[in-house]
Design goal:
Layout lengths: L7 H9 L36 E3 L5 E6 L12 H20 L3 E4 L15 H13 L4 E3 L36 H4 L6 H11 L19 E7 L2 E11 L13 H14 L7 E4 L6 H5 L27 H6 L4 E6 L8 E4 L2 E5 L14 E8 L4 E8 L4 E6 L3
Parallel strand pairs: 1-5, 2-3, 3-4, 6-7, 7-8, 8-10
Antiparallel strand pairs: 2-11, 5-6, 9-10, 11-12, 12-13
Helix pairs in contact: 2-3
The structure holds 2-acetamido-2-deoxy-beta-D-glucopyranose (4 copies).
GO molecular function: hydrolase activity, acting on ester bonds
Keywords: Signal
InterPro entries: Calcineurin-like_PHP, Metallo-depent_PP-like, PAP14/16/28/29
Length: 394
């Protein structure tokens, strides 16, 4: 979440003034991802794509949620790229402390409205680099900033901050549109680049009929020796924002309905849900002052910034006894989990140094065990300390 500055002048410039980005496109990329391996950490790089997420019998499966990293924030300043380095450090620390089996990038991986380069995949790559470097598989979902249109910083209009970089004189239209375009990098371009270059990526482009909503898919978590009997299904949904409204559409709800009914008709296998923007139901369970039982968390500093409309996904979730919990990001100042009917509604923890708010950074961790099935969660902070442990299964 982050308020957009209203720059009507931007739209004027969008068509009339073209900038060449080349000389500003290098910020942020020169810093190699810091390798912060803890003592004794063995990094085994996996080089082959796996069809399932695998769980070893009697071993828990641990997931780290990286939410709201906001890479590429104010990339034209010194401050911006420094935040990216800080965010890399947060992720590296969390990965060293927890050594998770899997990472979920929970949206707002980048701040596209601040990224003045044609190909925001460069920032996306930087954001996933600590996980990739450790050979840990991951999946991503989109937030409302990942494909937002580039917004011009107002300073660039006031002396002496006038853009020095322009495309060759524009007459009717910008020459070489692809060089001057402000449309940003689309969800599809981002996800295609991610999938194409990363065997460890478990992200999917989702069914075509749901586009422009892209990150709609399900991953099977199964025992290594028995891939055909899933232990849990992880559902990823695109809650919109950026290039289209902040909603989970009724078409997505229908997709969820038919998918769950097909692969888990009797609700026997537990289901865990991930998306970026909290649904309006989060407002119903939000603790009023502080955080008190049955909610568990450490910061409750904002109002829930919910999706724009209700379109039926929550109704479907509460009707399925197999749905155990929903995890969202978006609100950087909230990190609680609250029960709602048979499931839990949880916020992740703001992981990135980009984006608003200066609450200490961390990552929500989930630990899934199979026999009996349970989900335990806690928050691991950048400095190593752990808090807000909660069991999300009865
Ligand atoms: C964007 O960058 C990615 C790598 O970060 C690259 O694979 C892809 O080809 C680039 N796309 C364009 C259109 O330049
Ligand atoms: C812009 O292009 C049009 C034709 O496309 C031409 O008539 C006009 O003179 C051009 N204006 C300038 C300022 O070059
Ligand atoms: C879900 O699917 C079932 C079976 O196809 C159907 O009867 C039901 O109305 C659907 N629910 C919603 C909310 O679409
Ligand atoms: C996941 O599990 C379901 C139900 O067992 C199965 O139908 C589906 O093919 C599995 N998907 C993959 C990719 O193995």
């Amino acid at each position: 979440m982050r308020n957009f500055r209203n720059l009507s002048i931007f739209f004027f410039l969008y068509t009339c003034l073209c900038l060449c980005f080349h000389s500003i496109s290098t910020v942020g990329f020169t810093d190699r991802p810091r390798q912060h391996h803890g003592p004794g950490t063995v990094v085994a790089l996996r080089t082959k794509a796996e069809k399932h997420l695998r769980l070893l019998p009697d071993a828990p499966f641990k997931i780290a949620l990286f939410a709201d990293l906001h890479f590429g924030e104010n990339a034209w300043t010194d401050w911006g790229p420094r935040q990216d380095v800080n965010s890399l450090r947060v992720m590296s620390n969390v990965l060293s402390y927890e050594t998770p089996d899997f990472v979920v990038y929970l949206g707002d991986v980048i701040t596209a409205n601040n990224i003045a380069v044609q190909n925001a995949s460069l920032y996306w790559d930087l954001a996933i680099s600590p996980t990739r470097a450790r050979g840990i598989p991951w999946a991503t979902v989109f937030g409302n900033h990942d494909d937002a249109a580039f917004e011009w910083p107002i300073e660039w209009f006031s002396p002496p901050g006038i853009p020095q970089l322009r495309c060759p004189v524009a007459n009717s239209s910008c020459p070489g549109e692809e060089k001057c375009s402000f449309r940003g990098t689309t969800r599809l371009e981002l996800i295609k680049n991610e999938i194409k270059h990363n065997v460890l990526s478990n992200s999917k482009k989702g069914p075509k009929e749901l586009w422009p909503s892209v990150s709609n898919y399900v991953l099977n978590l199964s025992l290594s020796e028995d891939p055909n009997s899933p232990v849990a299904f992880l559902y990823f949904l695109d809650s919109g924002g950026g290039s289209y409204p902040e909603i989970i559409s009724s078409a997505q709800a229908e997709w969820f309905n038919s998918t769950t009914r097909t692969i888990n008709p009797d609700s026997r296998v537990p289901e865990i849900i991930f998306w970026h923007i909290p649904s309006t139901t989060y407002k119903k369970v939000a603790p009023m002052y502080g955080i008190h039982k049955p909610c568990v968390g450490s910061i409750n500093k904002e109002r829930v910034a919910a999706q724009e409309a209700k379109t039926g996904i929550m109704k479907l979730l509460v009707e399925r006894p197999s749905v155990k919990a929903v995890f969202v990001g978006h609100n950087h100042g909230l990190d609680w989990c609250c029960p709602y009917k048979q499931l839990w509604l949880c916020f992740a923890r703001h992981t990135g140094y980009g984006g608003y708010g200066s609450w200490p950074r961390g990552s929500r961790i989930l630990e899934i065990t199979q026999q009996p099935f349970s989900i335990r969660s806690w928050i691991r902070m950048e400095d190593g300390h752990v808090h807000s442990e909660v069991v999300l299964t009865p």
